[in-house]
Specification:
461 residues, alpha/beta, FAD/NAD(P)-binding domain, Enolase-like, domain 1, 3 domains, seven-stranded mixed beta sheet, five-stranded antiparallel beta sheet, 12 helices, globular
């Protein structure tokens, strides 16, 4: 008899766990089991990337209707029904849930729709049934956290925001990360009076400073009330809605408050510590370069290890684990020059180093920056501006960072990420013929470096 029930047992049916299970079974012939207590696809499919972008599309249609007049179209009476959007979204998510199930079973993975808990280095309890595995992979993701303040029970997170029965007339979004910026744009675009509250002097810490400044200006144009250097100290509920008490003693009346102030790794209560797996202070599972935990037979990937919380990164980590364990080649994930997008309005696309990060590592730089009105808005009359920026190492001419704020920024920067990964120089950008008329061509036509802007205050960095 085999020593173990499975070669590989995966806890968590999100993107990373599914990819690892599928390839371990389908490509390497391992006997694989996977447990997921919720719906297949994890955060990304159910309450993250996919529904968020669908909501973002919906919110932007309001501007599209308004812009149509500049192009000769007459648009009649219109209204927005959040419940109809939620129903359409749910139908698509259910379809994706089914695809994930079929992909796994088609690869030969045994799927258990059940809660799983690690018992020891080779044993997993699956809803009361004990199974053994040579290797265990923890891919349980993360969960949004609401800080401990009076009235926190009245707040929702992004999880609940995807299931609201109707659009609140007045919304406050608390937080300064990309989820907060995205939902502030979504609610405002749908027609809610929206306030974004952030305790720091400028949101999107970690992004390029020009990007942060530019998006703040554009969101203000789109009627998002940005309240920086502001904290909520209390949430009260009354007959007229919610009252947020702010740090300066003032108050804000809203119908809904959404917190996007961080996510915690889903590592507690699943037996990891009892099995000897080391956790960081924030609950992240501690792993080495090959995603092995402090217990040699237990591995972890994705948001639960809290490295880079992006679906494509979890996929790469899952592939690395399967190659290491079953492909005979120790593998890891490359975290350099990971491109990302923020589906704010307008969108952000970025890859490589920020100007501040590049200056700290590489010294003298050349900065190329362009701000312009997209061609579409020369007829719509909308005051939106697009920002594009290149960060170039002066001594080598290598492009270290590409940053954009504007329509389809993610689509544009994805292609440029290949160039950055390949080590392209500014001379290569200059020698590339642009596609005209597009916004993207601006990245290959910027010729003159710009003077450095005033640095951000230390508190905003």
């Amino acid at each position: 008899m085999a020593e173990f029930d499975y070669d590989f047992y995966v806890i968590g049916g999100g993107s990373g766990g599914v990819r690892a299970a599928r390839f371990a079974a389908g490509r390497y012939g391992a006997k694989v089991g996977l447990a997921e207590e919720g719906r297949m696809g994890g955060t990304c499919v159910n309450v993250g990337c996919i529904p968020k972008k669908l909501f973002a599309y919906a919110s932007h249609l309001a501007e599209d209707f308004e812009d149509a007049a500049g192009f000769g179209w007459t648009v009649g009476p219109r209204s927005f029904d959040l419940a109809a959007l939620v129903a359409s979204k749910d139908k698509e998510i259910a379809r994706l849930n089914g695809i994930y199930d079929r992909v796994l079973t088609g690869a030969g993975v045994e799927v258990h729709h059940a809660r799983a808990r690690v018992v020891d280095p080779h044993t997993v309890d699956v809803s009361g049934r004990s199974v053994t595995a040579k290797y265990i992979l923890v891919a349980t993701g993360g969960w949004p956290v609401v800080p401990d303040l009076p009235g926190r029970e009245h707040a929702i997170t992004s999880n609940e925001a995807f299931y609201l029965p109707e659009l609140p007339k007045r919304v406050a979004v608390v937080g300064g990360g990309y989820i907060a910026a995205e939902f502030a744009g979504i609610f405002a675009g749908m027609g809610a009076a929206t306030t974004q509250i952030y305790r720091g002097p400028l949101f999107l810490r970690g992004f390029d400073d020009d990007v942060r400044r530019h998006l703040a200006e554009e969101m203000t144009k789109k009627h998002v009330d940005l309240r920086f250097s502001t904290e909520v100290t209390k949430i009260g509920k009354g007959p007229a809605g919610l009252t947020l008490t702010l740090g300066d003693g003032s108050s804000l009346e809203v119908d809904q408050v959404m917190y996007a102030t961080g996510r915690a790794p889903n590592s507690r209560g699943i037996g990891l510590e009892e099995a000897g797996v080391k956790l960081a202070d924030n609950g992240a599972v501690v792993v080495d370069d090959h995603f092995m935990t402090s217990v040699a037979s237990i591995f972890a990937i994705g948001d639960v290890i809290d490295r880079i919380q992006l679906t494509p990164v979890a996929l790469a980590e899952g592939m690395a684990v399967t190659r290491t364990l079953f492909g005979g080649v120790p593998a890891t994930a490359d975290y350099t020059n990971v491109p990302t997008a923020v589906f704010s309005y307008p969108n952000i696309g970025t890859v490589g180093l920020t100007e501040a990060g590049a200056r700290a590592r590489h010294g003298k730089l050349r900065i190329y920056r362009s701000t312009f009105t997209p061609l579409r808005h020369t007829l719509s009359g909308r005051p939106e501006k697009t920002l594009m920026k290149l960060v170039v190492e002066d001594s080598t001419d290598r492009v270290l960072g590409v940053h954009m704020v504007g329509p389809e920024a993610g689509e544009i920067v994805q292609g440029l990420a290949v160039a950055i990964k390949a080590g392209a120089t500014k001379a290569v950008f200059d020698a590339t013929i642009g596609i005209h008329p597009t916004a993207a061509e601006e990245f290959v036509t910027m010729r003159e470096p710009v003077a450095e802007p005033a640095p951000l205050p230390a508190a905003a960095q």
